[in-house]
Amino acid sequence: MFMKLKQVAFVGLSSIMMVSCVSSKKLKSCEKNYSQLDSIYRALQADYAKCREKHSADEATIQSLHGQITDTKANSSQIMDQMKDLSVITGTQAESIKKSLDNIGVKDAYIKDLQSAITRKDSLNMALVINLKSAVGNLDDKDINIKVEKGVVYVDISDKLLFTSGKYNVTEPAKVVLGKVAKVLEAQPSIEFIVEGHTDDVPYKEGVLLDNWDLSVKRATAVVRILQNQYHIAPARMTAAGRGEYVPATTNDSKGGKAENRRTRIVIIPQLDQFFKLLEKPQ
Fold it and tell me: Of the candidates 36, 200, 191, which has an alpha carbon nearest to the alpha carbon of residue 128?
């Protein structure tokens, strides 16, 4: 009897232990599933929050666009009313305004073309300055100066380098310098230029020359003749001009100032035909 009871107790205890073991496995499995589902739920919550935030931003953008559309419609109506009023006041003025509005695109294209032409001119001028400085680079800056002012290229050659004092015959060393300048100018056949003679304010009179006007003109024509006859620059490209003492580079209060003012200036003229053509475009 005792043995039977013992067997029954053993069987019952084993059953309980087996049930307990199975429940523990299921619990762990459920905990794992719950953990996974909880992670998914939290990720979905974060995505939902982002979607709500984006939706709110989109709503604000849409509202802003609606406001802009409303304002534009209101402005358009106001302009139309004003145009109607103008047409009532004077049909000619209204037509003029309409033409002006129609020409906005044309004017904008014209401005762009003009800016492009200015850029091209500036590029050409810069290349010209670089070439001139390379050609005469071995000279002292006091004897020759090359610069660009307001889109125009100036080459200033000192009186000391070109002429003997009070004379207008070009010296032999100066002819070499003019040859270097002529070589650069010859490579740009479309460029025209002016040769200007300048003096200081010391009164001058010698032979047939009555004053500094005469002296400055004779010096300019002497340079032009050399460029034409010796270096074959087309005469139609050149203008000889005398400025006398009236366009000084600096004051005549000192010996150095007077020396600086005694100069021959080559003024390289921009190709203005491009700009004149552009000015003819808009109607």
Answer: 191
Give me 138's structure tokens: 């071995």
Pairing mode, if any, of strands 193-198 and 238-244?
parallel
Would you list the domain boundaries of the chain?
1-102, 122-276
Which residues is 154 bridged to in the sheet?
A: 147, 267
What confidence score (pLDDT) does residue 283 get?
A: 47
Strand partners, 155: 146, 266
CB atoms under 10 Å from CB of 267, counted, come to 16
Handedness of CA 58, 60, 63, 69 (dihedral sign): negative
| Contact (CB, 8 A) for 233 and 185 | yes
Q: Spelled out in words, what is the top-level CATH class assigned to the domain 122-276?
A: alpha beta
Distance CA 238, CA 215 (A): 19
Yes or no: say if 220 and 267 are a contact pair by the CB < 8 Å rule: no
The ranges of the chain with pLDDT < 50 are 2-6, 8-11, 13, 19, 89, 278, 281-283
Going by DSSP bridges, is the β-strand pair 263-268/193-198 parallel, antiparallel, or unpaired? antiparallel
How high is the pLDDT of residue 93? 62
CA quadruple 197, 200, 203, 207: dihedral, nearest 10: -30
To the nearest 10°, the Cα dihedral for 138, 266, 152, 199?
110
Q: Tell me the CA distances in angstroms from 75 to 69, 71, 78, 99, 147, one per residue in order.
A: 10, 6, 5, 20, 52
Q: What are phi and psi of 150, to 5 degrees?
A: 55, 40
